[in-house]
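Figure S7 source data.
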Amino acid sequence: MAFFCVFAESANLPRNMIENSMFEEEPDVVDLAKDTTAFPTFPALDPDEITYEPRSSRLLVRGLGENDMDEDEEDCESSARLLGMSFMNRSSSHRPSSSPYTRQSPSRSCSRPTARTMVACVLFLVIVASMTMVLYFLPGCTFTKDGCPKRNKTTPLELVYPLATNGELFPWTQLRLPQSVHPLSYELTLTPDLDNMTFAGIAVINMSVLHNTNRIVLHGLNLNISNATFKIGDGPASNVTVLQYKANQQIAVKFTEYLKVGQYCVLTLTYSANLSSTYDGFYSSSYTDKSGTKHILAATQFEPLSARKAFPCFDEPAFKATFLIKINRKQNYTTLSNMPQDEFERTSVNMSTYLVAFVVANFSPISKNVSGTLVSVYSVPEKKEHTEYALEAASKLLEFYNTFFDIDYPLKKLDLVAIPDFLAGAMENWGLITFRETTLLVGKDSSPLEKQVVASVVAHELAHQWFGNLVTMRWWNDLWLNEGFATYMQYLSLQEVFPELQAENLFLSVRFRVMDKDALISSHPVSTAVVTPEQVEEMFDSVSYEKGASILLMLNAYLPGEQQFRKGIIQYLKQFSGSNTETNNLWDSLTQVSTPHQNVSEMMSSWTSLKGFPLVSVSRKGDEVTLTQEHFLLTPANASHTSSLWEIPVTYVNDSCSVGPECRQNFLLKAKSGKLKTPVPESVKWLKLNYQNTGYYIVDYGDDGWTALINALSTNVSILTFEDRASLIHNMFALSRQGRVSFRRVLSLLNYTYKETETAPVTEALLQLNNIYRLLEKRQEFDLMSCMKTYILDHFGALMDNQTWGEEENLSKQELRSALLSMACSLEKENCTQSANDMFKQYVSNQTRRIPGDLQQVVFSVAAQSRTDWLILYDMYKQSTVDAEKRNMLLGLASTQDTQLLAKILNEGLKGDVIQTQELPLIINTVSRGFAGYLFAWDFVQVNWDRLIEKFLVGSFAIQSIIKSVTSPFSTQAHLDQVKAFFSSLQERGSQMRSVQEALETIRLNQLWMERNLSTLRELLTKIQSQPQKEEPGVSH
Ligand SMILES: [Zn+2]
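Tokens for the predicted zinc ion complex:
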């Protein structure tokens, strides 16, 4: 009976407990204790009590020996249960493997056992009891109350409570907290000492007991707890011992008597800690003002897992509570927190710990009242004049979101604070959003491109106040619910509120880039099970952000009518306001409001549960068009990777109507292949799928299809929208990278670009060509580089020459100009470098003459190639207080080809005095792109690895970016071996990161591409160089 009942009970586990298992095929939590009816004599245990851990085949017993049962009865009964479980788990390996979750299917025999079952159960218990006796007397380890000295590591049954720092057994083994006790409210009193870089704290945590339990387990890391008291209800407070288990970043209190369901209790902890010297937790930062005075400040960054470094807490997003935060400060400082400063109100909303924030600094604000909310922008005093644009953007966007979501922003105030040294772009803490200076501060005369950066980031963070803060993902596996949404809303709101900022080009290019990453075998599904801190950190990548946003765009474009998508998200926000959700909750809300009814859940679940994306191939026979889908992977994969099937909302246009939205036709491709419902007569010359690239898939048109499109484009560029032209270029390069089409075919498509003047297709083509050019450079294929240069200048030279160097108001033209001139100057096109040098000289002699924002990077990069000008630029960098300009100067400085200067700038970035360490990933990226620096940067990263992961944390976005930067220039076996050797030597210091797998795969792909294409490239480019004018399009495959 135990066997079946236990088996059935596991079906009732909360979905997330199963999903979050590290082992997808084998759910590792078997919830015995909930099933109290099966063992009526057994007191209701904490449902988190007993766990089977498949990785090590060890059984974990929790809380046994600590309840009020008779000891013998307890040992016997628990052993029986354990053996039942153990038997079950072993047998589960023999079960039919049709579903990984077979074990969950409820067994009906449990509810009303037949006589035969009863006999079987009794027999089973007898066997179990005998086995228990045998095991008990076996040498090695068995169940004892005192735990198990690890005498024999191969013993299958072993009690594995870890040891707390004081030597006692720590009563919990998992990384996720038990569910038996939930926090209701926190009262935090903090006293930071910025002179000594420490702080003292008192945390009063009110909790309610949801299941009987004899311990409270919560998070806390590097906190020196000096006193702890505990009380139940209004009872007296008594001192308790707090156990700490550092490996899991947890603390716990054990009780001799069980806490009972429904009780309220209060844990008060007095502690002290050091302010962090990294970018997470409660950390200190500093800046030097114009007069040379250094100012210290302190700020927080808790997402994802660092609130535990500032105060003891239940540091998982589903443990929401209210917060009352008091910060003692010296007179010359102001303090900011989620609620209005110095009034110390309790938060009016339940929130997750990662959204708590506080800042202690001498900042000054500008403010404005927006629909009952006081919006303020804070910066260091001397940059106050750069805050106006952010205030205006935040005010407009707040009003937009209040209306769009049909829910008013719930807090009385909203602060946006620019922190001088801050790693993330910004952080959406509820009511106190923190930013990098570069993402919040712009001068009055800044260009639209600089304003676009600020408006985008503000739009993203404000969207989080609803998506993330009001409704929060239950666990980090669904991080995309926060980040994909905020990213999508950022582009959507910008297009509505600031159409002049033309965010559509940016959104299109980020969609291309995330597909490049998602086409790797080492990619991951949007919703991915995560457990360890490193895995949680790694979720902060472009798949959660940009792929999340891309699939939302695809859904919005697919749902009929303007407002369906919006109605669905309003429904979702209202239904789950204040609570936590999983991906399905969102799809269900969208399904509910759809008219006519659409099964959104069915359509979208493939996009969140499968990694990668489909390639749709088109074939035409008579008037029949067949579409076939397959998983698009750059690395050839075995069959298990190619069985993925998506429900693809395909859109298409044809030669008779191809530009306006009315031309768009739809087809839902659910199966491996399908025929378009509407016949396409042979007189239709071509089809273009994925209208405006709103779908998250790529398309192969086959030989004839491509030829027809290429011919059509070379006759008339404007037969397709600019998004469609850019997507043809992107898809073609992707197919060539995979080896499906030849590079000859790529060049035949690019022939049309003589006539292209739109930003998106030009920038996409330049980016792809530049990638190849840079790889050739690193392989020292200098002859080929020279051919490639001729090719690029031949195709884009006229457009490059057309660009002006004055102020330009149109943002899209700025983007185009910036891309073209960067390319021209990096190829040392003479009129480009000359103009850039002239501009720099003028700027040095008269700094009131601003260099247009979009040209700064080009100008500074050209100047930095001369040692004298580099040093001038370096001095200017130290003086400048305009953040966007400063960043462009840094990009210039890092692009020098002088290795001594490269060493200087890398080391300054690591030291953090002149150049803030937050900029180091950017510096490493720029250095790695250059010929002089790429090996140097790789060396730098290896030598300084431990310092890097101390600053940026294993798995973090910064570390992901650093790994990608230094490894992506490689395309040889020797470098592949080096990279492999280095990362595998790191072990727990980073060898397990997904970005390492991505790096290795990318190098292999680069290597493969070179082997496959080098000779073709040589032949083609030489031919083109000897006859530079336009080739006939449509060269065969
Ligand atoms: Zn975000």
